[in-house]
Design a protein that fits this description.
Largest sheet: 7 strands, mixed
Oligomer: single chain
Radius of gyration: 25 Å
Strand order of the largest sheet: 11-10-12-13-14-15-16
Number of strands: 16
Structural class: alpha/beta
Number of helices: 27
Distance between the termini: 37 Å
């Protein structure tokens, strides 16, 4: 018999400490068994004995990471969602109806249904760290409407605009932003969590602190936010419009309700929408991408180690990119991670080093201590040395972690960070991945040689767009094509924020058609310039050229051994190019049959002849990436 998921004890002050720990899992999952146990725990709460209830997690990096995938597999028809969610809704309701104050103590990631669980508590408190990030996965990751009340509870709590940013656009909230957005009631310092929590509980028990009261917004303000949001939805793929609009309508209804609490009918409308979207094909495709991402992570990191004490050391003034990287990460405090500036600048070529305090590396990668890090910012580098150093590349150096957390329209993507492994490393150091992932990066490892894989993916997307401009397409047509493919945020707009046109000119050359002559400066200025005021028309030929250019990039990197597995390419495409999860992934979409159809559509003036030849060979061998 497996151990219980929930354990509880009543402390001397009469505070019931309820701890969640899903056996055999890195994260806490709110399963049917968890729901049954919680209902039993809450039924035993006696207000004559218990003065408050605190919910916490035994897992360092997870509060609750949802129940969405299990729910999705159980729902076979829209109507069945009412029966399939009944037990979990009873469990959440048992918390909401608790006769004493309830407090969610969030020290690890709180995703999806975990957020909705916390909304049933009277108070939410969190540590001031990205470790305690709140993120609604339902729409951004899975393309389905939430099922446990968030569309009705968030707008009165946070305001409609901020609620839409969090739920609809996949903004990740932690620390001061979570507090400013009224998602949490208090921040706790990383040092002295228990002492700060005890002081907060004293305030609650003495009635000195009350939960956030719901907000009422004016009809004019609600109309303004609604109109602006509909304009953002129009920039998404057509297939996404229905689910995003449905969710918007639910949240607008909640905002118009003002300070009045949601009714059972309000929750049933949300649940009905969730049932309809859960069974749609694009939602099923989106859920599959999660498994591809997990495979990509395990290609180079066999298992995620426990956080080990780390120290990132910088010799300031040696490298401006290293200074910027250090400053950005040191502003995102993590448990057991220290940032230190060492002595004055000297001639050191690599001013960043990561020191592992423990002598035992939990993932057995054999990584030395310290690790030397080289940050590559600016224009795409064209020559990577093999020097035993971990070379890190942000292919969109202008996209900061904070900017990504505020993207409009957003689809839950994170800034991509490629780590080129030194030769001799069979696997990546797990502690390096865990640290960078916790900071907020989408981390991939490669064995790139002369140029980073992520740069090649971006350039392989931009090059056909440039060639299409030369062939007579308008910039508006290019943007319409990217939207039709579903690339949100647009890689063109992201590149515009990171590069001047001249920075990309030489790097683009290998990706341009053989017939291209002269510089690409003018076409780059047209492509990366201001958004066209007129709307364009999607070009099937350009879409085919972009896909075939990316296919050739994947095939050549696989052949050279620089790309360990197709799932790594899928993560690059998702996080860097905004490739839509409604198609599952880039490699899943690039089947031999679809590639054959693209070859019939493509304009050979838009990509190199060698790339067409590679695509023809791929189509003829009739073997997909995932079989």
């Amino acid at each position: 018999m497996s151990p219980p998921i929930f354990s509880s004890h009543l402390d001397a002050r009469g505070v019931l400490q309820v701890q969640m720990d899903t056996p055999g899992s890195e994260v806490n999952i709110f399963s049917a068994r968890a729901a049954e146990e919680l209902i039993e725990v809450m039924a035993a709460v006696d207000p004559d004995v218990t003065r408050a209830v605190v919910f916490k997690s035994a897992k360092a990096r997870s509060f609750i990471n949802g129940a969405q995938l299990m729910l999705a597999s159980a729902v076979q028809s829209p109507e069945s969602i009412f029966e399939m969610t009944a037990l979990l809704r009873r469990a959440y309701a048992s918390v909401k109806r608790c006769p004493v104050p309830t407090i969610a103590l969030v020290t690890g990631s709180c995703y999806g249904c975990g957020v909705e669980f916390s909304l049933n508590c009277d108070f939410r408190v969190a540590t001031d760290s990205p470790d305690a990030t709140f993120y609604m996965t339902e729409i951004a990751d899975y393309l389905n409407t939430p099922a446990f009340g968030s569309t009705q509870r968030l707008p009165p709590m946070m305001g409609l605009e901020r609620g839409l940013g969090f739920l609809l656009w996949g903004h990740r909230l932690w620390g001061k932003r979570a507090l400013e957005h009224r998602l949490i009631d208090a921040l706790l310092p990383l040092d002295g969590i228990e002492e700060a929590l005890d002081a907060l509980i004293d305030q609650i028990l003495s009635d000195q602190r009350r939960p956030h009261a719901p907000q009422a917004e004016s009809a004019e303000r609600i109309a303004q936010v609604t109109e602006a949001t509909r304009a953002l939805i129009a920039r998404l793929p057509d297939a996404y419009h229905r689910i995003y609009t449905r969710c918007l309508d639910l949240m607008v209804h909640a905002a118009k309700r003002g300070t009045h609490p949601p009714t059972e009918d309000d929750f049933r409308r949300e649940l009905a929408a969730a049932g309809e979207t859960l069974v749609e094909t694009q939602a099923q495709s989106a859920r599959s991408f999660l498994y591809l991402r997990q495979v990509a992570e395990r290609v180079h990191v066999r298992r995620l180690p426990r956080r080990q004490p780390l120290e990132l050391t910088l010799k300031r003034g040696v490298d401006a990119h290293a200074d910027t990287f250090f400053d950005e990460l040191s502003a995102r405090p993590l448990r057991d991670i220290r940032y230190r500036i060492s002595g004055g600048a000297d001639a050191a070529e690599y001013p960043l080093s990561l020191h592992l305090s423990s002598t035992t590396d939990a993932d057995e990668s054999g990584a030395p201590t310290p690790l030397l890090l080289k940050i590559h910012g600016g224009a795409p580098p064209t020559s990577l040395p093999d020097d035993g150093v971990f070379h890190l590349r942000r292919p969109l150096p202008g996209l900061t972690l904070e900017a990504c957390e505020r993207a409009l329209p957003g689809t839950g993507t994170r800034p991509l960070l490629e780590v080129r492994l030194p030769s001799g490393f069979e696997r990546a150091p797990g502690h390096l991945f865990e640290w960078l992932d916790a900071c907020g990066f989408a981390v991939i490892f490669s064995r790139a040689r002369d140029t980073f894989l992520s740069d090649r993916f971006l350039l392989a997307t931009l090059a056909p767009a440039l060639a299409s401009l030369r062939a007579g397409l308008s910039a508006a047509d290019v943007h319409a094509t990217l939207r039709h493919i579903g690339m949100v945020p647009s890689p063109v707009l992201s590149a515009r924020q990171s590069f001047a046109p001249e920075a990309l000119n030489s790097a683009l050359r290998p990706h341009l058609p053989d017939t291209w002559e002269g510089p690409a400066d003018q076409h780059l200025r047209d492509l990366l310039g201001d958004l066209p005021s007129a709307s364009g028309a999607p070009s099937p030929r350009l879409s085919a050229a972009m896909h075939l250019n990316l296919l050739a990039t994947i095939l050549t990197a696989r052949e050279s051994g620089e790309l360990a597995h197709p799932t790594v390419a899928d993560v690059i495409a998702r996080e860097l190019l905004g490739y839509p999860v409604g198609r599952t992934s880039l490699c899943e979409h690039l089947t031999p049959g679809r590639v054959s159809a693209m070859l019939e559509q493509v304009d050979p003036r838009l990509l190199p002849t060698a790339h067409i030849t590679l695509a023809q060979a791929f189509a003829e061998q009739t073997r997909a990436f995932y079989v």
